[in-house]
């Protein structure tokens, strides 16, 4: 944890709190989180269920607003943003990778990637340099298949390609290996590390698995809505 | 499957609208065609009749000979028309010799003119509809008739009878209910009409040029038809609205997770709404196209079963009208599901199973 301000930090979070209202009961999910992440860092976030790591992801990704505190992502203060501004931010600033892959089932892998480009407001065809990323991900030959014709590992690599096709400042991976066997988990984790090393992609990865967390440059431990340790 | 079913359900009211319009226009066009085929220049009808009905006291048959002697009138013939099958099919009694002289005669496909008082001539549409042939004895207007000829359709009526027999069997001896008049020169038609209208003996009789009479035969001049079509169109809009609303609501429920995915990629509310409305537009368009295709099927079926009683035509200018109405109904129906989808919370949508 770092309370100072560093211009190299792509994420700066101060006293972040998030409380959900469930019926008539307030449920605190984050109870004062401070976190800085440098640009080009691969950060693992580990913690038990209910520790608030997914909520932290959703706030950093602009899917939900914070209840209080300051969240600056890529120089933009999310706490002051409207719903529409957070939607615009999701187009280009962050990319998501989910545990369940979340590919659009009726589209081919290529079209799943193209949809992200289209929503991002760019030409549906990725730049020629993106071919290198597809080669790195090992899915160049699988782009014309629909998700149901792809293995779990391939689907997750397509999801990674979709997440980074608009060159987001941050890639948020929520349990990216949670639905994969050991071999595919290793392949996906190596791809994430390669993207981080070769392209300088900032990555935040949630995981339950300490072995997966070990792929990160550093690891943040969360419990009960707080960061308890950073190693 | 859901989309195909929606298109089918949207297509049905489209077909109904097009059939209704096709039938009403078909009746009018058929009447116009048969009126033009008579070869007359002027038509005189009973005093209290309208251009659509022959209600009111009939015209004394002696007036036919009187009119034939008026200025510019070359010849006149009286006919007596009755409803043969409800309101959709009429039969007309004629003086065969006079009518043939005026119209140039019927073109017979089989058989020929009346030979006996109880002879009847059918046109090919009615003969096909009733599977009748020359030599058959049929029951019409509660009495027996003998089919003596099948003529080509397009002159006067689908069923033609000897006027004397028809008058006798309907208790209308000495009466006609329309007098067709031919003038010496078509250029004198208006002069002849003025002369007839100014004649004190013909006071109160509606007298039209045939051109004027056929122009009056249009859908807009038929009382309540426009309103009836509007009601059917309204029903079509409501059905289209309800079908699309249900269909798209189901689609939104089924695709909640996909909506969450799109939102996580940065799709705005208007983008999500646009997707739903686009699908509704294509459902409406598909329903319109299917409805048009089915209207051809309905027209073929009607033509095969009731070519004379229900002369349906395809009215192309109603395609865009029906399409616009259907698509508008579909878009309205998609609005609520679309707004619901647009308002989905992305986190809840992504966790939807």
What structural keywords apply?
heterodimer; A: 231 residues; alpha/beta; Rossmann fold; 6-stranded mixed sheet; 4-stranded antiparallel sheet; 7 helices; globular; B: 353 residues; alpha+beta; 2 domains; 10-stranded mixed sheet; two-stranded antiparallel ribbon
Explain what you see.
The complex is a heterodimer of chains A (231) and B (353). By secondary structure, chain A is of the alpha/beta class. The relative contact order of chain A is 0.20. Chain A has a single domain, classed as P-loop containing nucleotide triphosphate hydrolases (Rossmann fold, 3-Layer(aba) Sandwich), CATH 3.40.50.300. In chain A, a hairpin with a 2-residue loop joins strand 1 and strand 2. A six-stranded mixed β-sheet of chain A has the order 6-7-8-3-9-10, sandwiched between helices. Chain A has a four-stranded antiparallel β-sheet with strand order 2-1-4-5, with helices on one face. The longest helix of chain A is centred in the last third of the chain and has 18 residues. With 353 residues, chain B is α+β, with helices and mostly antiparallel strands. Chain B has two domains: 154 residues, no CATH class; 160 residues, no CATH class. Chain B contains twelve helices and twelve strands. In chain B, the strands form two sheets. In chain B, strands 1, 3, 4, 5, 6, 7, 8, 9, 11 and 12 form a ten-stranded mixed β-sheet that branches. A two-stranded antiparallel ribbon of chain B has the order 2-10. Chain B is elongated and about 90 Å long. The two termini of chain B are 21 Å apart. The chains are: A alpha/beta (231), B alpha+beta (353). At the A-B interface, helix 2 and helix 3 of A face helix 9 and helix 12 of B.
């Amino acid at each position: 944890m770092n309370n100072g301000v560093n211009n190299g930090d792509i994420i700066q979070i101060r006293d972040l709190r998030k409380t959900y209202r469930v019926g008539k009961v307030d449920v605190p999910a984050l109870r004062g989180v401070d976190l800085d992440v440098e640009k080009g860092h691969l950060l693992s976030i580990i913690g038990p269920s209910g520790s608030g790591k997914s909520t932290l992801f959703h706030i950093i990704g602009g899917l939900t607003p914070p209840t209080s505190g300051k969240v600056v992502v890529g120089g933009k203060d999310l706490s002051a943003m409207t719903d529409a501004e957070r939607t615009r931010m999701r187009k280009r600033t962050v990319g998501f990778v989910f545990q369940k892959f979340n590919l659009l089932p009726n589209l081919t892998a290529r079209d799943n990637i193209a949809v992200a480009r289209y929503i991002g407001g760019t030409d549906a065809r990725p730049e020629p340099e993106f071919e290198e990323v597809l080669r790195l991900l090992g899915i160049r030959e699988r782009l014309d298949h629909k998700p149901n014709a792809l293995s779990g590992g391939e689907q997750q690599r397509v999801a990674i390609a979709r997440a980074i096709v608009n060159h987001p400042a941050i890639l948020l991976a929520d349990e990216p290996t949670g639905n994969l066997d050991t071999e595919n988990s290793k392949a996906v984790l190596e791809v994430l590390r390669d993207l981080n090393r070769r392209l300088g992609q900032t990555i935040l990865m949630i995981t339950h698995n300490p072995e997966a967390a070990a792929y990160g440059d550093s690891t943040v431990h969360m419990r009960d809505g707080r960061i308890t340790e950073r190693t | 499957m859901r989309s195909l079913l929606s298109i089918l359900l949207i297509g049905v009211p489209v077909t109904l609208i097009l059939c209704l319009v096709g039938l009403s226009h078909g009746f009018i066009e058929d009447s116009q065609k048969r009126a033009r085929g008579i070869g007359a220049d002027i038509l005189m009808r009973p005093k209290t009749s309208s251009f659509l009905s022959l209600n009111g006291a009939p015209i004394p048959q002696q007036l036919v000979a009187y009119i034939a002697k008026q200025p510019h009138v070359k010849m006149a013939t009286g006919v007596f028309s009755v409803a043969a099958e409800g309101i959709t099919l009429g039969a007309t009694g004629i003086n065969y010799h006079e009518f043939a002289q005026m119209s140039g005669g019927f073109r017979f496909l089989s058989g020929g003119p009346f030979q006996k008082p109880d002879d009847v001539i059918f046109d090919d549409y009615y003969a096909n509809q009733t599977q009748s042939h020359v030599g058959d004895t049929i029951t019409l207007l509660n009495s027996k008739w003998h089919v003596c000829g099948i003529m080509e359709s397009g002159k006067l009526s689908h069923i033609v009878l000897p006027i004397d027999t028809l008058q006798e069997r309907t208790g209308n001896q000495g009466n006609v209910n329309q007098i067709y008049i031919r003038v010496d020169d078509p250029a004198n038609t208006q002069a002849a009409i003025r002369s007839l209208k100014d004649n004190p003996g013909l006071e109160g009789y509606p007298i039209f040029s045939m051109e004027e009479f056929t122009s009056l035969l249009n859908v807009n001049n038929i009382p309540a038809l426009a309103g009836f079509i509007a009601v059917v169109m309204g029903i079509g809009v409501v059905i289209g609205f309800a079908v699309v609303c249900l269909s798209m609501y189901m689609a939104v429920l089924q695709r909640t997770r996909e909506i969450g995915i799109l939102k996580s990629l940065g799709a705005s509310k208007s983008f999500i709404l646009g997707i739903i409305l686009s699908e509704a537009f294509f459902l409406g368009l598909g329903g319109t196209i299917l409805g048009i295709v089915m209207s051809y099927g309905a027209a073929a079926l009607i033509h095969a079963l009731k070519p004379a009683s229900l002369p349906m035509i395809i009215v192309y200018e109603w395609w865009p009208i029906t399409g616009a109405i259907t698509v508008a109904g579909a878009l309205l129906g998609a609005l609520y599901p679309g707004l619901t989808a647009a308002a989905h919370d992305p986190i809840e949508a992504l966790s939807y199973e």
